Amino acid sequence: MLDRYAQPENDPARLAERREVLTDQLAWLADEAEALAPLLADLPEWAVSETALPGERSVRAALARIAALDAGPRYAWLRALAAAPAGAAPALQGDEPVLDAADVAARSLRELLADVRSARTALLERLAGLSESVWAAEATLDGEPATLYDVTLRIARDDADELRAIAYRLHEATVGGSLGGGR
Q1: How many CA atoms lie within 13 A of 91 on its CB side?
Q2: pLDDT tens, position by position, for the chain (183 residues)?
Q3: Helices marked H in the chain — which ranges?
Q4: In the sheet that 139-141 helps form, which strands lie side by side, from edge to edge?
Q5: Cβ–Cβ under 8 Å, residues 9 and 143
Q6: Could you state, in order of their start, the residue ranges of all structural domains in the chain?
Q7: How far apart are CA 157 and CA 71, in angstroms?
């Protein structure tokens, strides 16, 4: 099980509270991305387009990744869960989106942040339309048993990891000035 929410108590009020908390957490990302906009706008281009270490994502790539995940695999997960017949356990895959580096580099931060908001809004609208039975239905996510509670928790954790990485980049670019060789 991915988390304790995989086997939630059956109390309807408690389940509703958990759904609300998880949905609110997912909605928070769009607000956080919007709050980052003025901070990111003040950084030099190298600080949002380059990485300090190989294998890291730039701020631009992180934002593009979140939007692509929400619009692609994550939205598909919700569709698959909603369409699954009762008792069926759909297999969900956590596929990484393939990002076109040139496209990401050519887009403004404002456009990337708008993509995050748009994709997350669509994801939240789809999530809001799912019934309690869909939330409780069994599925697998990357081969592990999961419910929609687990899926939304995984998305929230992934968001937190990406935003933490962006925060570190902001900190280093503004305080340390050491990113990308401290240009």
Answers
A1: 2
A2: 455 555 546 788 888 999 999 999 999 988 888 888 888 888 888 888 988 778 889 999 999 999 999 999 999 999 999 999 988 999 998 888 999 999 999 999 999 999 999 999 999 999 999 999 999 999 999 999 999 999 999 999 999 999 888 888 787 777 655 444 444
A3: 12-41, 45-49, 59-69, 75-83, 101-106, 109-128, 132-136, 148-171
A4: 91-92, 139-141, 144-146
A5: no
A6: 4-181
A7: 17
Strand partners, 144: 141
- The pairing of strands 139-141 and 91-92 is parallel
Class of domain 4-181: mainly alpha
| Among 69, 70, 91, 67, CA closest to 80 | 91
CA-CA-CA-CA dihedral for 116, 117, 122, 127, to nearest 10: 90
